[in-house]
């Protein structure tokens, strides 16, 4: 029988266990910046042609005839054969309603309509008319002519009465004057802001009917 004697480095210090050489790597941290990607431009107006991404649509042809529920490919083919565009005119319908037409003419018509609406748009202004509680008849008529002209032009009118000194003791005169203006303009104007007192001023706002 052969005995095998196991020894360890601890008992024999002249045996050294060599550890593998550790290499130190210099790690360089770099920040990689992604190129800036701008958001895709949004298209104005309805979806058209290949931008209509639904499987089926309700098709109205160039003559205004309703062809019913068809596949999007069939609708695109019909528009191509007509030499026109396929335009989505009712996206919320089930299925969406599309029509074969000239997209360029549609955009031009919409732009012309929008320009006409901006041209005819009236900017309402508030014109201020100042009076005294004890205004004389001639001055009153002159002021009222201006009030009526403002209403004809579609503007609102702010009537302002200013009290001085002892006039503050006779506030009822101001209320009577404003009620007189209200009654004389009742057929062409309505009260938008009732008479109210702010400091030494009493104000009322009228708007054209």
Estimated radius of gyration: 42 Å
The CATH architecture of the largest domain can be named as 2-Layer Sandwich
Instruction: Please give the count of helices.
Output: 4
Query: Describe the biggest sheet?
Result: 4 strands, mixed
Per the CATH scheme, the topology name of the largest domain is Translation Initiation Factor IF3
The CATH class label of the largest domain is Alpha Beta
What is the CA-CA span between the terminal residues?
126 Å
Summed over residues and divided by their number, the pLDDT gives a mean of: 81
> CATH superfamily of the largest domain, please?
Translation initiation factor 3 (IF-3), C-terminal domain
**Overall spatial form:** rod-shaped
Spatial order of the strands in the main sheet? 2-1-4-3
- Please indicate the percent range of residues in DSSP E strands (runs of 2 or more): 25-35%
User: How many domains comprise the coordinates?
Assistant: 2
Q: Give the low-pLDDT segments.
A: 4-10, 19-31, 34-42
Question: Helix and strand succession?
Answer: EEHEEHEHEHEE
Counted beta strands: 8
Helix content: 25-40%
Keywords:
single chain; alpha/beta; rod-shaped; 209 residues; four-stranded mixed beta sheet; 8 strands; Ubiquitin-like (UB roll)
Could you describe the 3D structure shown?
The chain has 209 residues and is of the alpha/beta class. It folds into 2 domains: 49-118, Translation initiation factor 3 (IF-3), N-terminal domain (Ubiquitin-like (UB roll)); 126-208, Translation initiation factor 3 (IF-3), C-terminal domain (Translation Initiation Factor IF3, 2-Layer Sandwich), CATH 3.30.110. It is 28% helix and 25% strand. It contains 4 helices and 8 strands, in the order E-E-H-E-E-H-E-H-E-H-E-E. The chain has helices at 72-82, 103-120, 137-152, 171-184, and strands at 56-60, 66-71, 85-90, 97-101, 126-131, 156-162, 189-198, 201-208. The strands form 2 sheets. A 4-stranded mixed beta sheet has the order 2-1-4-3. It has a 4-stranded mixed beta sheet with strand order 5-6-8-7, covered by helices on one side. It starts with 55 loop residues before the first strand and ends with a strand. Mean pLDDT is 81; it is low at 4-10, 19-31 and 34-42.
């Amino acid at each position: 029988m052969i005995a095998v004697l196991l020894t360890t480095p601890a008992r024999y210090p002249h045996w050294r266990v060599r550890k593998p050489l550790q290499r130190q790597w210099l790690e360089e941290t770099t920040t990689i910046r992604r190129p800036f990607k701008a958001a895709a431009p949004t298209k104005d107006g309805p979806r058209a042609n290949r931008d209509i991404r639904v499987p089926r649509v309700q098709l109205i042809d160039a003559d205004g005839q309703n062809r019913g529920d068809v596949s999007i490919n069939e609708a695109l083919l019909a528009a191509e054969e007509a030499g026109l565009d396929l335009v989505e005119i009712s996206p919320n319908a089930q299925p969406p309603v599309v029509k074969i037409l000239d997209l360029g003419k549609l955009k031009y018509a919409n732009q012309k309509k929008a320009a006409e609406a901006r041209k005819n748009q009236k900017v309402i202004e508030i014109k201020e008319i100042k009076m005294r509680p004890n205004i004389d008849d001639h001055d009153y008529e002159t002021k009222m002519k201006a009030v009526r002209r403002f209403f004809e032009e579609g503007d609102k009118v702010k009537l302002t009465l200013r009290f001085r000194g002892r006039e503050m003791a006779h506030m009822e005169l101001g209320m009577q004057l404003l009620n007189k203006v209200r009654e004389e303009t009742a057929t062409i104007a309505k009260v938008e802001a009732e008479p109210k007192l702010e400091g030494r001023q009493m104000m009322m706002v009228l708007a054209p009917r």
